[in-house]
Design goal:
Pfam family, one: OKR_DC_1
Structural class: alpha/beta
Oligomer: single chain
Cofactor: pyridoxal 5'-phosphate
Largest sheet: 8 strands, mixed
Strand content: 5-15%
InterPro entries: LL-DAP_aminotransferase (IPR050881), Orn/Lys/Arg_deCO2ase_major_dom (IPR000310), PyrdxlP-dep_Trfase (IPR015424), PyrdxlP-dep_Trfase_major (IPR015421), PyrdxlP-dep_Trfase_small (IPR015422)
Shape: globular
Keywords: Aminotransferase, Transferase
Organism: Aliiroseovarius zhejiangensis
Distance between the termini: 82 Å
């Protein structure tokens, strides 16, 4: 609109003016649908500009459109009134420059919008808005504008697409239908509660139902219900996100104060605020931190550059004190405790704990708190190494679960539900179900494969009703704040399960299925979607790398708990495990950043996640549609990364150059696995470079583009809430430049050089070694030869004595040992990095497939493997001695059992 109106204003009678006028009319029609749901510029201003256009005041229209565009781009409309008249321009230009400074932005009042839902005429709408405007006071901590929509459906459209909305006022005059027809609205209503049930409502039920529906898509918002119904009628209703009910009154001041109070409750950062106040206090430092208050820096002649780089505030806020308004992370009673409670509300848990040394520590805390020596734990074999070390510390008996392999890209997907159920049923048949304690899975995986969390838990609970679940959501912290993503998070699924298990409908369905499946064999159970008993216990833990996907300093993480037995069974052991792994000198800056990061996502997480997905989708589209990039690169789709049998919806790709965008709601609701669109895996084998070379030598060294993960022929680009469209554009420019250079190189190549290039591409794209499954634990470390769980702890500590170990060269002595027919058993974790999960664990038999895979690895870092010595294995003498020890222990256990 800006470009078209500016062109018309420059040449109103030109040869192209008729086409420009037609184009602008079309743009007005398109924008008319959008502007009704936003306070700025607002319907009245938009209609005024449209009338100016109809009266051929083209210069005024161009000026107003340019002013609106600039205000939207800079965010200036959030800070002050934006006049659209031409004679007000000069004064504002100077102010615009000043207000852009960081200091000025920090001092400006935060802005949001309030949606009023009521079917009113134009005069009544102005009256409503003016009443809210009159309530504003200078001392108000925030500034808001109002936007009025008439219907329940319009309100849903508004909160789906207007990220500025923080509060909704639902008045009794609202109607049901919107004049806007959007197919996306129909799909959303079906998911949120069903169109049929909504259409059957009486008009007086529209308000409460709207509050409930909004809670499904944006639970962080505040709603205020104005109603003329009796207290008795309202009391028994599910009011969703409704914070307060006003009974048939026009008390605008009370509404205004409640709106500000509701936003203030989310804006509040107890620990960050306490730390800021502490930094302002004059203190005498007599504790063990010379850097506190910056004294050791300000008095130095040699490290002044450090003080100049970081500035004074970070040192003023550095202390080991837990008093003076601060708190202890190990036993919080003040602002840290309150900050954790606010995080629990934001992420939908029952309890949330902060961690300042990463999610690796969070994983060990949860495992140690819940798993006792001898407990059986089902573990995703390619989960992060911290879980495997946690199994060692806890003394767990480990049953490793194999993910489906993606051999052509040298990566693993996720563990199929059928495999999980098979292992549980196998343990049940062996009479060991009482010893099974936990299922541990990664959601989502490093490469973006996401589980159907709720279905996994309900079917596992159908087999073992008290099973504990640990979902490693290190890469999925942002998911809570996107409506589509939220449904596949551990905490959301836990709350849904708790609610559903209490219903009479579920009890009836369970009893019916129980009767139908009586005496059923394993194959029938594997092919049936099992229902958990109503008495099943919902016991869910999720660990989250807040610093990886949200705003937090490095190593800032959280543990989210939704365990019905936490208070009675786990709390004491959890506190001990937390004490074991948490530093007595936690970094206060990390804790403060977790507090502020929580504030951000409660107030603008919805907006930032939308933008993150948009950036990733635009990257997918740009690469998929560029003819030059298609020669050397391929963006892996859901069809590439998830086998067909796990995609019930049949969705192959989120974007197709011929068909356009795909509606992903259906697959996210139905499919066993879905692909997180914010992770873009790019196959680079067509360039002739392996993934690690492409990452290090090309992207990082040559162009300064940083990424985490590679496989043999892929690189992973992860977008996050800080990713900008400019960053995406730069990446596309770099890829195009690389493709052009390859074109020129091949144009000038000799026949032999071209053959060499083609051979490298073939080796990377076609001649790939198959990914190995978990082989087995050696008999010396197995507690059962049938179910096969392994004692990883005994193997780990047996290797502490060097006399029990030997080293075999990967391309030499190891082949002779294999040919002898004796089992080779790993004495350590072998972990290629990235992605950071073991391909061998202590006590695991080394197979030919694993050795072949190790030889094909092209990463620069393999933890546990020494190039100078080789692979560390147990000696045959150590294995024989361990086998005797293990047999004696099993005999003793059998005697105890009898």
């Amino acid at each position: 609109m800006r470009e078209a109106t500016a062109a018309l204003a420059r040449d109103p009678g030109g040869t192209r003016s008729d086409k420009q006028i037609e184009k602008i009319n079309q743009l007005f029609e398109s924008l008319a649908l959008i502007e009704a749901y936003w306070a700025f510029p607002g319907v009245q201003a938009f209609d005024h500009i449209r009338r100016q256009f109809e009266h051929k005041n083209y210069e005024d229209v161009a000026f107003a459109v340019q002013r609106i565009t600039r205000a939207l781009t800079t965010g200036a409309y959030r800070r002050r009134h934006i006049p659209l008249e031409r004679d007000s321009a000069d004064a504002e230009e100077h102010e615009d420059e000043v207000i852009q400074s960081i200091e000025a932005r920090a001092l400006a009042k935060p802005y949001f919008e309030v949606m009023i839902v009521d079917d009113v005429n134009e005069h009544q709408e102005r009256w409503l808005k003016s009443n809210f405007s009159r309530m504003r006071r200078f001392e108000d901590p925030f500034h808001y504008e109002t936007v009025v929509v008439p219907s329940l459906q319009d309100a849903l459209i508004g909160i789906l697409f207007n990220h500025n909305i923080q509060a909704i006022v639902v008045r009794p005059g609202l109607i049901m239908e919107s004049k806007v027809e959007l197919s996306i609205l129909t799909r959303y209503l079906n998911r949120a509660g069903g169109i049929d049930s909504i259409e059957a409502l009486l008009p007086e039920d529209y308000g409460p139902e709207l509050c409930r529906l909004i809670a499904k898509v944006r639970p962080e918002l505040d709603a205020y219900l104005v109603t003329d119904r009796s207290v008795e009628d309202i009391a028994g209703l599910d009011l969703g996100i409704c914070r307060r009910v006003f009974y048939n009154q026009e008390d605008f001041l009370e509404l205004h104060l409640n709106i500000l109070r509701g936003v203030q409750a989310r804006y509040k950062t107890p620990f960050f605020t306490a730390l800021v106040e502490y930094s302002k206090q004059p203190t005498g430092v007599f504790h063990a931190m010379p850097i506190s208050r910056g004294k050791s820096i300000s008095r130095s002649h040699w490290i002044q550059d450090m003080g100049a780089f970081y500035g004074p505030n970070i040192f003023l806020a550095e202390t080991s004190a837990t008093s003076g308004g601060l708190d202890s992370l190990l036993e919080p009673h003040g602002p840290i405790k309150e900050a954790q409670e606010l995080a629990s509300r934001a992420f939908g848990s029952k309890q949330t704990y902060f961690a300042t040394n990463g999610t690796s520590t969070c994983n060990k805390i949860v495992v140690q708190a819940l798993v006792r020596p001898g407990d059986i734990v089902l573990v995703d074999r390619d989960c992060h190494k911290s879980h495997h070390y946690g199994m060692v510390l806890a003394g767990a008996q480990v049953v490793y679960l194999d993910s489906y392999p993606l051999n052509e890209y040298s990566m693993y997907g996720a563990v199929p539900l059928r495999e999980i159920k098979h292992q549980l049923l196998r343990l049940k048949a062996a009479g060991k179900l009482d010893r099974v304690r936990m299922l541990l899975l990664t959601n989502c995986t490093f490469d973006g494969v996401v589980y159907n969390v709720e279905r996994v838990m309900e079917e596992c609970l159908a087999i073992k009703p008290d099973l504990v679940f640990l979902w490693d959501e290190a890469w999925f912290g942002f998911a809570r704040f996107g409506p589509t993503y939220r449904q596949r998070t551990g905490m959301n699924a836990a709350n849904n399960l708790r609610e559903r298990l209490r219903t009479a409908d579920h009890a009836r369905a369970y009893e019916q299925q129980k009767t139908e499946l009586e005496g059923a064999d394993e194959e029938t159970l594997l092919n049936t979607r099992l229902l958990p008993p109503p008495a099943a216990r919902v016991r869910i833990y999720a660990t989250q790398s807040t610093h990886k996907t949200l705003t937090s300093l490095r190593q800032g993480s959280m543990i989210h708990v939704n365990d019905q037995d936490f208070k009675g069974e786990v709390e004491a052991s959890f506190q001990e495990a937390y004490m074991t792994h948490t530093s007595t000198s936690p970094n206060y800056q990390i804790i403060a950043s977790l507090d502020v990061g929580r504030r951000q996502v409660e107030l603008e997480g919805f907006e930032f996640v939308q933008r993150q997905v948009e950036a990733a989708m635009s990257m997918r589209r740009a690469i998929a549609t560029h003819p030059l990039l298609q020669k050397y690169f391929k963006v892996l789709t859901a069809g590439d990364m998830i086998p067909e049998q796990h995609r019930e919806s049949g969705v192959q790709t989120y974007y197709d150059p011929e068909q356009g965008w795909t509606d992903i709601w259906d697959c996210w609701e139905k499919d066993e696995f879905v692909l997180d669109a914010t992770r873009v895996t790019l196959a680079v084998g067509g360039t002739g470079w392996d993934g690690d070379t492409f990452k290090t030598d090309i992207l990082m060294d040559k162009y300064g583009i940083q990424i985490n993960k590679t496989s043999r022929n892929t690189v992973l680009f992860m977008t996050n809430i800080g990713t900008t469209r400019s960053s995406v554009a730069y990446l596309i420019e770099v890829l195009v430049e690389i493709a052009k250079e390859l074109d020129e190189l091949l144009d000038d190549a000799s026949i032999m050089e071209r053959r060499g290039f083609e051979k490298r591409v073939a080796n990377l794209m076609h001649d790939l070694p198959p990914l190995p499954d978990f082989s087995r634990f050696h008999d010396a470390f197995r507690t059962d030869q049938i179910t096969g769980e392994g004692d990883i702890r005994s193997a780990f500590f047996l290797s502490y004595d060097e006399k029990n170990c030997d080293y075999l060269e990967l391309d030499g002595s190891i082949n002779e040992a294999l040919e002898s027919g004796e089992d080779l058993v790993s004495a350590s974790f072998i972990i290629p990095y990235p992605p950071g999960f073991p391909i061998l664990v202590p006590g695991q038999v080394v197979s030919k497939e694993i050795l072949g895979f190790m030889r094909a690895l092209d990463v620069s870092e393999i933890h546990g493997y020494r190039d100078d010595l080789g692979l560390r294995v147990f000696t045959q003498e150590a294995l024989k001695q361990q086998a005797k020890t293990n047999a004696a222990r099993l005999k003793l256990n059998d005697a105890r059992h009898k």
